[in-house]
Amino acid sequence: MRGIISPKLSDFIEQANIAAEEAKASGVIFTPSLVRGNLDKLAVFIGQGPELVHVTENTLDTVSHRIPVRIYSPTPDEVLPVVIHYHGGGHMCGDITIYDAISRKIAKSGHCIVIAVEYRLAPEHPYPAGINDCQYVLEHYQTLLTNIKYNEQLIILGDSAGGAICTTLASHNLHNNNIKINKQILIYPSVDYSMSFPSIEENGVGFLLETSKINWYFKHYFQHNEPRKSVSPLFMPMDSSMPETLIFTSGCDPLRDEGLAYGQVLKQLGVKVEEHTFDGMIHAFMLLDSLVKAECDKTYELIGKFIKNKS
Question: Name one GO molecular function term (predicted).
């Protein structure tokens, strides 16, 4: 069912659609630099995050390259849970600077440590380079916390492509005795690279993220003829030991149905799942905080409760 846009977003969407039509009429085509620049422009809507006692830059060094990270803690002398934050952006865009305010708000609302990860992006670094970076951080994050107190509760969090990374890592580490992911938080996650659910078409035009752009992202991400279904988290191995999961979906999002389907699969396996759908919201609404502040504030509130919940 096609979503009905919130009046809060009507003007923004109208302007975005006019700009998109003008670009098409002028023969503008997607390029990595163009879509990255467009995401950068949304930073004006995100606003500033709260001041925190501890915010530092660091890197994890692999054999071939460095993975930049930014570490946040509201109280570095207090033993807190750790959230590893994998940003969204279609596996091609985004960075820890654009998502800084979001990382800060998560750290404050969840009273937790947040490690934001600057994983490698396509097309320069196609699948599975970014996944490998995120796995490396999952395996070595404790080495980053030598001056910060933390406990053993490990949570992974991501929006859109970041949600795809979380769900992929959750499946890949099901039987890894060295890694225990306690919870995962998924914000309008991308979990079906085969693009097989109705909302892909029903909400595929006119709501900022369009089906044509999703397909374009995936073509640049998967450059070695990977079978789309088998690399989709929704169709990866899962069992009852999957992490407790919090899922947010948006009513006007092309990815809405796959996020809901992922939650259903987990529930059928006996995994504890909490779900919230924001009718009238679009994909990436968390980047539009100044336009939909009530919805963003509610999302952070729910994230905070989920992180703090001991069950």
Answer: hydrolase activity
